[in-house]
Design a protein that fits this description.
It contains 26 helices and two strands. The chain has helices spanning 3-13, 16-24, 29-34, 36-43, 49-54, 56-72, 75-88, 92-107, 114-129, 143-148, 153-176, 191-206, 234-249, 259-269, 283-286, 291-304, 318-333, 341-354, 368-383, 387-402, 406-419, 423-443, 456-467, 482-498, 510-540, 570-618, and strands at residues 546-547, 568-569. A two-stranded antiparallel ribbon has the order 1-2. By secondary structure, the chain is mainly α.
């Protein structure tokens, strides 16, 4: 008897129980096994949305027949045909039905066939990849927009499929999670590791885009205790379930912390001519798609959202966790989507809290990851247009700087001033350095010397080469550099007003600062003011109502916050020139304040010098 023809005929007739009986009949066992692939291929054609709606009995009977075939036949053969069905379907209902049969076959799969399981999981990932994410993830979103993201149809669909996949994996994990005689962490491709990699890839595929905050993020102060929200969102619940499932297989997730660093070394090794993949095979390194994001999101959820269970071995030095965790902050802050950045900020916030009671030293900065982190973190804040990202991100960066000793703080600020040309970044670094100097002065007695990193030759080098410097002299574009110039003037003013006893030795080289910075700035302001006054006068005297932007070439794109300037009316041009003059007036105000402080200090120093001379004459 041709089993395939008989089963198809019974299904077509509506004799569904007879179709199942043909498969389960011991007399047909050999024939069923020989025709397993054809049975799966032809019978699965009945799994359609139309049959699910109009012929539910046929659809249900087809699922039953396929499950019986999966129970009797070769698991690899069954899985091969089911993977083909997943590749061609676009229906989530059909996908779910196929998963039921796959589950039966995987549970019967021999332990040595882990590669087959990996192929199955790759096919499932490819199905999920066919679901396009919403376009809104490509823009900067505020917190409310992120929370509403899960209402998007494609996101909702993916979350539902994630729940389905967790149910699919549940008995498989229970089957694999048996006590093992091997006490070491295996990195070879086993069925258990294939499931772990699959879960990590699921985490890395979707979760970077979702709003997963389990606690309220405080903006102004990071010292207060955050509050738990009143209820969990759909996204948070799925994320918690996914991490909980992963932790069933990985009892000590912190053991996997080094994989962020390992993956970087692995990628560089693969480029070597003598690289031997077999001798150094590690399944957690060889998976490419979504794995880096998966590891980063795993530790974001464990550390940043406090999902790390209390049963995890407490054997890890906080400094070790801090340093290893920086690699995952880099991953989250380097993505193409700015919606990921806040998760990097939250993870960094959690890492800094780990070492708040153990001050790091400048020697810790010898690790290359610190410079890599600093660059990617700051670049991420530059790219992000989110007020929340910048506000919280800057506060976390400041806490990171303050987690080091004085030398370490100086080294980070110095690196930022040397590495970044962005005006706002330089302004931030200057303000941090100013605050460090002021804190040191407040903590010391009036005549007690300051530490070397905030005084003497070190301070001189910072002021003359990095802070109080116009790179092109009076020709420097003052408006493009207005924030850092104002910060430099503010730092000078505070230093002059505070350091009356010259503990920082700033007066020893003040003439250099005055010549290369203050006088050049005075000239630059006067030239720029005259230029914009002429432009405003020319715009006001224009006869036509409209004019192209080419007539005002000095109004640059950077002046307009990166936006292309529009074609402006005469009134708009006058208004723009007035805005430029107002910003120059602000620079002029800060310069005048510094010059006033200089004059006052020089008069005071002159009086003190005369008093000292008179006292000596009297004696």
């Amino acid at each position: 008897m041709d089993v395939l023809e008989a089963v198809l005929a019974k299904l077509e007739e509506g004799s569904y129980k007879s179709a199942v009986d043909i498969i389960t009949d011991p007399a047909n066992d050999i024939a069923v096994k020989m025709q397993s692939m054809e049975l799966i291929s032809f019978i699965s054609k009945n799994l359609t949305d139309e049959n699910a709606e109009k012929k539910p009995d046929l659809y249900s009977a087809t699922e039953t027949v396929l499950s019986r075939v999966a129970q009797q036949c070769s698991p690899p053969e069954v899985l091969y045909e089911l993977m083909e069905k997943v590749r061609i379907t676009t229906s989530d209902d059909v996908f779910t039905s196929v998963l039921k049969c796959m589950q039966v076959a995987i549970l019967r799969l021999p332990a040595k066939r882990a590669r087959c399981m990996e192929w199955v999981f790759q096919t499932l990932i490819e199905y999920l990849d066919k679901i396009k994410l919403p376009e809104v993830i490509n823009k900067d979103m505020d917190e409310q927009e992120e929370e509403l993201l899960e209402c998007e149809e494609s996101i909702r669909r993916l979350l539902q499929l994630y729940i389905t996949l967790l149910l699919f994996l549940e008995p498989i994990i229970k089957h694999l999670n048996q006590p093992s005689s091997n006490i070491f962490f295996e990195t070879s491709l086993t069925q258990k590791n294939a499931v772990i990699c699959f879960l990590l890839r699921l985490v890395g595929k979707l979760f970077p885009f979702l709003h997963l905050q389990r606690t309220e993020q405080l903006r102004k102060s990071l010292k207060q205790t955050p509050k738990l929200p009143a209820s969990k969102s759909y996204s948070i619940q799925v994320a918690e379930d996914m991490i909980g499932t992963l932790l069933l297989l990985v009892k000590d997730p912190l053991f996997m912390l080094p994989y962020g660093e390992k993956r970087i070394h692995f990628e560089s090794k693969k480029k070597d001519d003598d690289y031997d993949e077999e001798s150094s095979y590690d399944c957690f390194l060889c998976q490419d798609t979504y794995m880096a994001e998966g590891f980063a999101m795993l530790f974001y959820l464990l550390l940043g959202e406090e999902l790390l269970p209390g049963t995890v071995p407490q054997i890890y030095n906080p400094r070790y966790v801090f340093e290893m965790g920086l690699r995952y902050v880099v991953v989250l802050m380097s993505g193409d989507w700015t919606v990921m950045y806040f998760k990097g900020i939250r993870l960094m916030q959690a890492l800094v809290k780990l070492v708040k009671d153990n001050m790091l030293s400048a020697r810790d900065l010898d690790a290359q990851i610190h410079s890599i982190f600093c660059e990617h973190y700051v670049r991420g804040l530059e790219r992000s247009g989110s007020v929340r990202n910048r506000e919280v991100g800057i506060a976390v960066l400041t806490d990171y700087i303050h987690s080091f000793d004085d030398e370490g703080r100086y080294m980070i600020v110095s690196y930022m001033l040397k590495k970044f040309d962005d005006d706002s970044v330089r302004s931030y670094a200057i303000n941090v350095y100013k605050d460090l100097i002021m804190n040191d002065m407040r903590q010391k007695l009036q005549k007690e010397p300051l530490i070397k990193w905030f005084s003497g030759d070190v301070l001189k080098n910072m002021l003359t080469h990095h802070i109080c410097l116009l790179k092109q002299g009076a020709k420097t574009d003052l408006l493009d550099n207005s924030y850092s110039i104002i910060s430099a003037l503010s730092a000078l003013w505070v230093l002059l007003k505070t350091d009356r006893s010259n503990r920082s030795h700033i007066w020893n080289y003040f003439e250099t600062l005055e010549k290369q910075f203050l006088l050049e700035l005075r000239t630059g302001i006067d030239l720029s003011r005259a230029h914009y006054q002429n432009e405003m006068k020319a715009a006001a005297e224009m006869k036509g109502k409209h004019s192209s932007v080419e007539q005002l070439p000095e109004i640059t794109v950077s002046t307009l916050n990166g936006e292309m300037p529009p074609v402006m009316t005469k009134a708009k041009k006058v208004e723009l020139c007035q805005g430029m003059l107002l910003r120059l007036d602000m620079l002029d105000f800060h310069l005048a304040r510094v010059n006033s402080a200089i004059d006052q200090m020089r008069r005071t120093m002159g009086v003190d010098k005369c008093s000292s001379t008179q006292q000596m004459d009297t004696e």
